[in-house]
Amino acid sequence: MALLQGFIMVLLFAVVFIVCSCLVLFWCIFVSCLFLVLDYYSYLCGRRNKERFSMARIRQPKKVKEPVRLRMKDLSDGSKSLYLDIYRNGKRTYEYLKMYLIPETDDNARKRNKTTMNAANAIKSKRIIEMTNGEAGIENEKEKVFLLDWMQTYKENQEKRGKKDENQIKVAIRIIEDYAGKRVTLDQIDKAFCQGYIDYLMMEYRPRGKRVSNFTLKNYYRVLNSALNSAVRAELMRSNPFDKIDKSDKIRLPESKRSYMTIEEVKALIATPMKYEEIKCAYLFSCFCGLRISDVKRLQWKDVFIDKGQYRLAVSMKKTKEPIYLPLSSEALKWMPERGDKTPDDTVFDLPSGNEINRLLKPWAKAAGISKRFSFHTSRHTFATMMLTLGADLYTTSKLLGHADVKMTQVYAKIINKKKDEAVNLVNGLFD
Q: Which is more confident, 242 or 139?
């Protein structure tokens, strides 16, 4: 009986063990299959997302670089020059707009810069349209620009460049409006228009009922001429019609008369004492080197140096900005003050204002027996005529004066030639 009970228990345990093992095995298989299904589902979802992402990326348009970009260049005075960076057909070119951003020190400066940027961006957009139309074979139609509008733009550009002809431009704008009205466009300006403007200045322009000098009229002619040249550079005009007018039909200036001292008169000035010794020395120094009063006043000891035994000046002329290296004669060195303990940055001459100098010079000239027109600038004329009289050639004299063009020096050559004619004619009638 006990044996039977034991057998039954073993059999029951075996059945339970088998059932549990099957259940565990079934659960393991189920879980494994579940993970496989989940992994496959994740794979399918990931693939769909990848395909969706790839399709979205393909559909996204490519970023196209602008063919024309507005850039700026820092200048030494703190302002910025605006220019266009143009990239076309694998080549890069630059268009300098001659437009400038100034330091924004106040609201007016900020407003001015904003106006300038708007104008520059307008030009940039115009260039992009022109390039696009050109590539498409579409001919660009020139925008009609009113002359008075362009004159205003020209005036603003001149101001940005630091030019001091604002008043002349203002007057010229009023004259142009009186002559042609407000509706004249740049494409209407031709040779007849320009000649008519010259004739109007010469024959009809009478402010306050009085005729003005040819020097003044020449300035108003130059304003319009320069403005049209600027329009040509901006590709608003093909050419300047003033270039087609004969020189004889333009406003002519009278022969320049320049007062200068003869060698005998310079000797008289040297022998005549002057209360203000520094001014006398500066004037005679200029007689022997040709510097303008502005350059004499700015002259510093660091500008004076010795090169191979020759004293020289390194001068950047205030009027022309032209740097020159000027040799100094022993006569010029005589009238330079002693340096003493002055530093390189100290000025060579201690002088008052230009007007005060000219006021003090006149009694000195009168005491020397000189009655002709006399100012500090007379010393520069004296140097030029002295060089040519003593045999220096025109080109060398031009370089010593710092003239940008030898034509500016020719007026002194005419003076010398006239003196030669007078000298030759002194014998006339002596042998009759």
A: 242
Residues ≥6 apart with Cβ < 8 Å to 161: 98, 100
* Phi, psi dihedral angles at 285 (to 5 degrees): -60, -45
Amino acid at 317: M
Q: Which residues of 386-416 are buried (b: 16+ CB within 10 A; e: fewer)?
A: bbbbeeeebeebbebbbbeeeeebeebbebb
Cβ-based neighbour number of residue 261 at 10 Å: 24
Range of the domain at 375: 263-426
Evaluate whether 390 touches 400 at the Cβ level (below 8 Å).
no
In a 13 Å sphere around the CA of 404, the CA atoms on its Cβ side amount to 6
Q: Measured between alpha carbons, how far is 279 from 362 in angstroms, rounded to an integer?
A: 12
User: pLDDT digit string (tens) for 178-193?
Assistant: 998 888 999 899 998 9
158 with 125, same domain: the answer is no
Residue 232 has pLDDT above 90, yes or no: yes
Instruction: CATH number of the domain at 313, please.
Output: 1.10.443.10
pTM: 0.47
Q: How far apart are CA 241 and CA 71, in angstroms?
A: 33
Q: If you count them, how many residues does the chain have?
A: 432
Alpha-carbon span 139 to 145, nearest angstrom: 18
Instruction: Identify the CA nearest to 72 among candidates 112, 116, 109.
Output: 116
DSSP state of 143: P
